[in-house]
Amino acid sequence: MRHERQVELLSRLKGLDPHAPWPLDDACMRNPAAHYADPARFERERDILFRNSPQLVGLGCELTKAGASLAANFGGVPIAIVRQVDGSLKGFVNACRHRGAPVVGDSEAPRPRLTCPYHGWVYDLDGALLARPYAEEAFADAPAAECGLKPILVAEKHGLILAQLHGESLDVDAALHGAQADIGPLGLEGYTFIEARQNTWDFNWKLVLDTFCEAYHIRALHKDSIAPHYLSEISLCGAYGPHPQQIGLLRGVMAEIEKPDTADWRLLPHATMQLIFMPSGLITFQRDHVELWRVTPLAVDRTLVRTSLYAPRAPASEKAWGYWRKNLDILLDVTGREDFPMMKKIHEAMAAGALDELIYGRNEPALIHLHRSINAMLGEGDDRQV
Questions:
Q1: pLDDT, tens only, 145-166
Q2: Where do the structural domains in the chain lie, given as residue ranges?
Q3: What is the CATH code for 1-51+191-386?
Q4: Could you name the CATH architecture of 55-169?
Q5: Which residue in 149, 177, 249, 280 has the fewest CB atoms around it within 10 Å?
Q6: Distance between CA atoms of residues 218 and 339, nearest Å
């Protein structure tokens, strides 16, 4: 992040009481509990938010070699992104044109061709059909030129990979709505992919994003883990178009603004900067690494979460690799023991009809912005006033 931007953000903390809630939105927001538990609304979300808008798939450093691939799911539609020999990316619906089997798995080594595991049809990296082993005559009236993998839009910039099922074009900068001003200077193109892990949770997909949209819960939910290190009442919040930004602050941050020369101010050593790329991605910039949380709705009450960790440079030893894997262990331990089990209980209450609505407080502006964005994308009203 540019130093000028760090100074601008830190300047907002001048004169604040770290024990008083800040920032405060102009009003609370009421959100119907049915927005989390209604199967019909869930299907609308999958269609509008995940099948018809840009999705954050991963960082470009995951695909460093020709033939490297990433598989994902856009609202129930399987997709794959493949690095080409010329360094560009191609995206496809991840379904063989013969019988619909996936041609790219969740974890694949780079390969010169894509081969369907069902009947062995072979595709080039650009999706063109190359061979139908032992069966060309059987498909003589289905020309190979018409049987390539179905393409989707894909674009790469600022170290990010975005994709979209439908549309004429995909512009990364337009999709980021200005967030590139913070992301670009981080140099994500030069990062190294360490590892990705995924898990399925029994709650609505929005609860994953809710987890990262406010610091208010840290004091209570994380009292025995990260609460001693973080401020719970104040944070730095913003938005880029529909995308909320939530910056959690370590307790040492207040000492930065006491330094007489702003040239000495540093935010990043004291912050966890989170940008939610609506609707499917959460990029987290920690003090010494970057995380990507990719959210895949599977059902109204079931969500796949893929967490990837990236280091600013390639580890030089096995000990260094172990350091980064340990970071991922700790991260997933906190969310897996504290955050996500709580989200499961919350979802169960809403699914049972225990509450008519949830109330997001003025001290949760990023959370309010998240749900205003979702509601707006679905063409729904803004139920902000309590």
A1: 999 999 999 999 999 999 999 9
A2: 1-51+191-386, 55-169
A3: 3.90.380.10
A4: 3-layer Sandwich (2.102)
A5: 177
A6: 10
